[in-house]
Each structure stands twice: as structure tokens, then as C-alpha cells.
Amino acid sequence: MSENTFYLTTPIYYVNDVPHLGHAYTTVAADFVARFRRLQGRRVHFLTGTDEHGQKVARSAEAQGLSPREWTDQIVPRWTEVWDALDISNDDFIRTTEARHEKPVQSFVSHLHERGQIYLGSYEGLYCIGCEAFKVPEELVDGKCPLHGIEPEVVSEDNYFFRLSEYAGRLIELYETNPRFVMPEPRRNEVLGKVKAGLDDLSISRVSFDWGIPIPWDPKHVIYVWVDALQNYVTAAGYDSDEAAFRRIWPADIHFVGKDILWFHAVIWPALLMALDLPLPATIYAHGFLQVGGEKMSKSKLTGISPHDLIETFSSDGYRYFFMREVSFGQDGNFSWEGMAARYNSDLANDFGNLASRVTSMSVRYLDGVVPGRPDGHELGPFERDLRAVQRRAFEDMTRAIDDLALGEALKAVWSFVRRGNAYVEEVAPWALAKQVGARRRLEVVLYELLESLRLLALMTAPITPRAADELWSRVGASGSVHDCVYERALAWGGLAPGSQVRAGPPLFPRIET
Ligand code: MSP
What we know:
By secondary structure, the protein is an alpha/beta fold. The chain contains 18 helices and 14 strands. Strands 3-2-1-11-12-7 form a 6-stranded parallel beta sheet, with helices on both faces. Strands 5-4-6-8 form a 4-stranded antiparallel beta sheet, with helices on one face. Strand 11, helix 10 and strand 12 form a beta-alpha-beta unit. The longest helix is centred in the last third of the chain and has 31 residues.
């Protein structure tokens, strides 16, 4: 693991079309982890970008009557818009058509060539443009690619090959000795089984079209789009362009990918790195696939929903929370409007939103919105002690879950504290204390505990619902932005400064009428 920088990546997306829910899923997950690590005080480098070469993109351009470059320049903003709308906090965005990528890719393959890892051969195979990959007949269903529903094309040409087959032994050893290299575990077993069955050399160039990076010593060939694309993880980190940055950033701590592209990341990518004696990423995490209403997303069936449609209704916070909480990370999941509205209303509008609005409005009503003095130890009863203990445990559980990339579990842990907060309100009934003679200090103590709970909740929810968290942070009178905090210091109980001004406001998560 790189010591200084926590480096995490999403796949770079094909710009043959605009983003859908599946693409946004990978990116939101990576953003959740990136924001959490920053709050832990880690120096984070979070990379995403676009995969712009290859036949799939070239054909989309052609269908629009545009050159591939005109097309990609036009469509890339449609992707960055969605990332902005989802509050994605990437530190860099790489396009594979940038010079900072293309040049180092050429030197990477030249080094492979110099080391005798590449040879010229001829190939005949079935190529699926949807996958941008050759398929063996056993992978097809009724002659079609099961992922894309199209018949692969017969390709027969002279290609350069990478000696992938020579790496099987080292890869097997890698999976066996390092259980975190491919996660989650069932995926690791799958990859291990397939590699044990044997590896073929990999065709890494094409001559029948030219939308790609030329092979430097034989420019009528362009580099196979996957070999070009995988290298974004090192070129964006400074490989062959900025030695110091590369040393600081590489290797990656996590490559987030969908299960459909695990093979490229867990087999081809480490073999390419091994061939140049470059350090390997620590973890490749393959998540499951999303469906819409139980079906594969497809434009023709109206299941190809744009993230914008959901953000309009549920806000970016609601969007981020729903997909991370509802789908068990690593497994397949389903989106439906009803399911999303139900989850949003119960967890965000009711549990979290109501707690925030009850506590801030009672503080305004009973204390003129001024944060009271911190309770002394002797002022704490069993309810307060339990509230604090639940918060500590919730944060420990959250941290452990994120370390294990059990992202939904991390949110369940945070919500155990949300629920405890709501239960505490019922137990201490501030509205009754407000009417009771001689109970003023007790009222202050319970409202301090509750305001402090909200401050801690703002910190704990900052990685998943960054807007609401920052708003809550300022409503309870904390200073600065929640996103500039570091957990170790900020999470100590009692951080909320007495005398600060509390504000009530509109619901953080307005209820959705179904
Ligand atoms: N360009 C390649 C990746 C190169 S990375 C060096 C690619 N692009 S993609 O745009 O087709 O897909 C990118 C990501 O979106 C993949 O991780 C894929 O798994 C994910 N998803 C696409 N559809 C999905 C769902 N329906 N559900 C969840 N994720 C899905 O592959």
C-alpha cells in the first residue's frame, strides 16, 4: 500500500453514450470511500475519467456523422455534469485521448517490447464490440454475447501479442497469498479457478481501424483499447511523466470495478505490471450489477434511467444514500421508484431528518438557539452514557465496515446512532422539562447532548450525504465546513462550543409523496 497517498479509482467509462445508473453506482461508491478516507486525515487521490478509443466509441461517432474526436469532445461534458450533480469529489479526471496518457502508454508498450514480452502473431477470433474483447464460443449464448445481446464479429488479422500465459503461476501465487487482492471472496475464487485452468497470450493490437494509440515501432497497428485503458491508472498518477508524483501516488489502494470487467483488472492488469516490475495495486473490488425493476437496463424498455431523473426527485444526497444502503456492496441489486421512495422516506426524511429538525427547533424554542454549557460528568445519567457509547460503537463499526468495503453495513452502523438519538429524545422528553420548574439545567444538558449528537452525525454522514451533513454542521453552530475536519480530533464528544448559535431550517430531506 502506498504510504502517503490513498489512491482509489473508478473504471474509465466508454463514451459511446451518456451515463446511466450502473456507471454512477461505481463512482458513488468510490466517492463514499474517498470522502471517508479524507476525513480520516489521509491524503487521498481519487481518479475517474473516460475511455475514448476503440471501435465502440468510433462507431457511435460514425452514427452521429462526427469524427471520434468531435464526438468525444461533445459527450465528455455529459459525464462530468453527472459527476458534478452527484457531488463526486474526484481529484483528477483522465481522458485517454490526452497527450499525458497517450505518450506514456506508448513507452509502456515499448518497454514490454524491449523486454521480449510482445511478439507478432496472427489471430482469428470472435470479437464483441460491446465488451471490446474476444470471446470463446463457450462464452456465447445462441451465438450472441450474453452481456450485450449482439453477435460477435469474426476478426482475422496479424496482431501483436503479450505473453500473458507466462504469468499464470505468479498470478495464482498472488491470489493465494494475498486474499485482499481480489475482493469480495467469491470473485477471488472465480478468478483463481479460471487462471488455474490456464491462460492464453493476449492480442494487444489491431490493424483494421485506426481510432487508438499507434504501436510506436509499427504504427499501422493501434493498441488494443483495454491495454490502453488499463494504463490510465498509472499514466494519471505520473508514470513516465512525473516520477515524484508516481512514487507518491502509485500503487493504487483500490480499483473499484463492476463484475463484468474483473478479468481485465485482476488478470491482465497485474500481469502487465509484473512484466515491467511495477508495484501492484492493493485491492481490486468487483461490485455487482444493478437492475431496474428486476430487468437489465435498456433504453428501448425505458429502464435506461439517467441519474439526473433521480437526483431531481431525491437530491444527490438521497441518490447516494439509497444506492449505497439498499444494495449489499458486492452483490447484484435492484432499483425501483417505490423502493427508493420508501428507503428515502424512512431513513432520511423520518429518522435522520426528523431528529435534526426536532433538536434544532427545540433548541431555538427553549434556549433561544444558544448552545448551552457542556455537561459535567456528574450531570450525566444512564441515558446519556448509553447515547455516547452507541455513538462510539457506531463509528467503530462504520470504520471496520469501510475497511472491509461493506459499504451498506457502514451506513447501518451510522443509523444505529440515528435511531438511538431519536430514542433518547423520547426518553428525556425535553418538552416536559421545559415546562417543569427547576429543570432548566437538565433541559440544557439534554439539549447539549442532542446538539452534540447532531454535530457527530454530520461528521459521520459527511461521506455519504455531503450536502445535508454540511448544512446540519452549520445549523448546530459548528464553524467552518464539516468536510475540512479530521475525525480523530473532531469526533471527541464535547466539541460543540457553548454559546454558538443554532439555526432551525427547512427539512434536510423533504418527504417524497408516493
Ligand atoms: N471502459 C471500460 C472500463 C475500462 S477501466 C480501465 C468499461 N466501461 S463501461 O462504461 O462499459 O463500464 C464502466 C463501469 O460501469 C463498469 O464497472 C461496469 O461494471 C459498470 N456498469 C455498467 N452497467 C452496470 C450496471 N447495470 N450495474 C452496475 N454497474 C454497471 O467497461
